[in-house]
UniProtKB/TrEMBL annotation:
Name of the molecule in the record: ABC transporter ATP-binding protein
Keywords: ATP-binding, Cell membrane, Membrane, Nucleotide-binding, Transport
Gene Ontology terms for molecular function: ATP binding
Family the entry assigns: Belongs to the ABC transporter superfamily.
Top-level taxon of the source organism: Bacteria
UniProt-listed PANTHER family: ABC TRANSPORTER ATP-BINDING PROTEIN (PTHR43875:SF14), MALTODEXTRIN IMPORT ATP-BINDING PROTEIN MSMX (PTHR43875)
Domain ABC transporter: from-to ranges: 4-241
Length: 358
C-alpha cells in the first residue's frame, strides 16, 4: 500500500505545448492517503485515464513527479511500482482456464502453491466464478471475462495500489451493484490504496471514501459524497453530481442580499461586492414551490419518478428544477419558488465563494 503524491504534475500529448490549452492534464499537486479508496469521476475526455496511466507507469508525464510513500517513481516501470491495473475491456488469456488466469500474477512471483490455491478459490467465490474455474476462458461471455480481469487484479495482497479504469463497462447491469459491493468489501478487508476511474456518479459515490472530480484536465474537488453534494466547490461538481444537478441562477450579490432580475433574496452569509460571473447554486432538493413566497416561476411539467417528483419550471426564461415529495400535490396556484437560505451557494467565475457568517 502506498501514499500517492502528485507533485507539479501535468501532461500534454503535443511534443511542444505552447499553452495551457495544449495540456490534457493541467498542473496537479495532491497527496492521496495510503489505504484510501478514491474514485476519479468526470466526463469523457476530462483526463481521468491519462492520470491513471501516469500513476500506473504506462505514461510518463510531461512535467512533475509521481511519488509512492515519498519515493520518486516517475521513471519506474509498472512492475517496479508494484501496481495492479484492471482495464475497461477484458484482458484474459483465452487458452488458459479461469483458475490459471487468476493464479497467473501469483505464479509469476513464485508464491507458494497452497497460498495460490487458497487465494484463487477465495477470489473466485467473491466474483462468482467458482463453477467455471476449470473452464477455458475462450468460450466465456464478456461479463465473465471481465470478472476474470477483476479477479486477477485483486488476487495479490501485496500491491501498492489497485487501479480500475471503468472496469464495469461490459458487466451486466444486474451484476454491477454486487461487484461494486465486493470491491468495497475487499478494500475494507485488506486496506489497499484503490483508484477507480468512472464517468458514472453512482459508481463513484457508492465505491469511494473520497471522490476526485475532474473537469477539463483539472481536479476541481476532492471530497466525500456528502461534501460534493452539499458544498460543490465548482459549478461543474454541482452540475455533474446529483440528478437533476444543481440549479445555477445568474445574480447580483452584495452583503446578505442576492438580486435576480431585480427580485431580492436573503442569503445566510454576507458577501462583499462581487465581480465577474456571479451565480447562485442551489440543489433541487432545497427548492420549494409556493403560492405566495419567493421568485415567480411557470411550471412546465411534473415528472413522477417513484420516490419523488421532479418539477421542471421556468425562472425568468431559464429552466429550474425542483424536487417535491411523492405525496406533495402540485397545484396551479403554485407560481413561486423559494430557496432554503442555508443551502444557497454563491459562485464567482464557476468557483465557490465563502461568505461570512451573519
Amino acid at each position: 500500500m502506498a501514499k500517492i503524491t502528485l507533485d507539479n504534475l501535468a501532461h500534454s500529448y503535443f511534443p511542444n505545448p505552447t499553452g495551457e490549452a495544449d495540456f490534457a492534464l493541467k498542473e496537479l499537486n495532491h497527496d492521496w492517503a495510503d489505504g484510501e479508496a478514491y474514485a476519479l469521476l468526470g466526463a469523457s475526455g476530462c483526463g481521468k485515464t491519462t492520470l491513471l496511466n501516469i500513476i500506473s507507469g504506462l505514461l510518463t508525464p510531461s512535467q512533475g513527479r509521481i511519488l509512492f510513500n515519498d519515493m520518486d517513481v516517475t521513471a519506474s516501470s509498472t512492475t517496479d511500482r508494484n501496481i495492479a491495473q484492471v482495464f475497461q475491456f477484458p484482458v484474459v488469456y483465452d487458452t488458459m482456464t479461469v483458475r490459471d488466469n487468476l493464479a497467473f500474477p501469483l505464479r509469476n512471483r513464485e508464491a507458494d502453491a497452497g497460498y495460490i490455491a487458497m487465494r484463487v478459490q477465495g477470489i473466485a467465490a467473491m466474483i462468482g466464478l467458482e463453477e467455471t474455474l476449470d473452464r477455458r476462458a475462450r468460450g466465456l461471455t464478456a461479463d465473465a471475462k471481465q470478472k476474470i480481469s477483476l479477479g486477477r487484479g485483486m488476487v495479490r495482497e501485496d500491491v501498492n495500489a489497485l487501479l480500475f479504469d471503468e472496469p464495469l463497462t461490459v458487466i451486466d447491469p444486474h451484476m454491477k451493484w454486487e461487484l461494486r459491493t465486493q470491491l468495497k468489501q475487499l478494500h475494507q478487508q485488506f486496506g489497499h490504496t484503490m483508484i477507480y476511474v468512472t464517468h458514472d456518479q453512482t459508481e463513484a459515490l457508492t465505491f469511494a471514501n473520497k471522490v476526485v472530480v475532474m473537469h477539463d484536465g483539472r481536479v476541481v474537488q476532492i471530497g466525500t459524497p456528502q461534501e460534493l453534494f452539499e458544498r460543490p466547490e465548482h459549478t461543474f461538481v454541482g452540475y455533474f453530481i446529483g440528478s437533476p444537478g444543481m440549479n445555477l441562477i445568474p445574480a447580483d450579490v452584495e452583503g446578505k442580499v442576492a438580486k435576480v432580475h431585480g427580485a431580492s433574496l436573503s442569503l445566510a452569509r454576507a458577501y462583499g461586492a462581487l465581480s465577474g460571473k456571479v451565480e447562485l447554486g442551489v440543489r433541487p432538493e432545497f427548492v420549494s414551490l409556493t403560492e405566495d413566497v419567493g421568485l415567480p416561476v411557470k411550471v412546465r411539467r411534473v415528472e413522477d419518478v417513484g420516490r419523488h417528483k421532479i418539477v421542471r419550471a421556468d425562472l425568468f426564461g431559464s429552466e429550474i428544477n425542483i424536487v417535491a415529495g411523492e405525496d406533495q400535490s402540485i397545484s396551479p396556484d403554485m407560481t413561486r419558488v423559494a430557496f432554503d437560505p442555508d443551502r444557497v451557494n454563491v459562485y464567482v467565475d464557476d468557483w465557490l465563494t465563502e461568505g461570512e457568517a451573519a
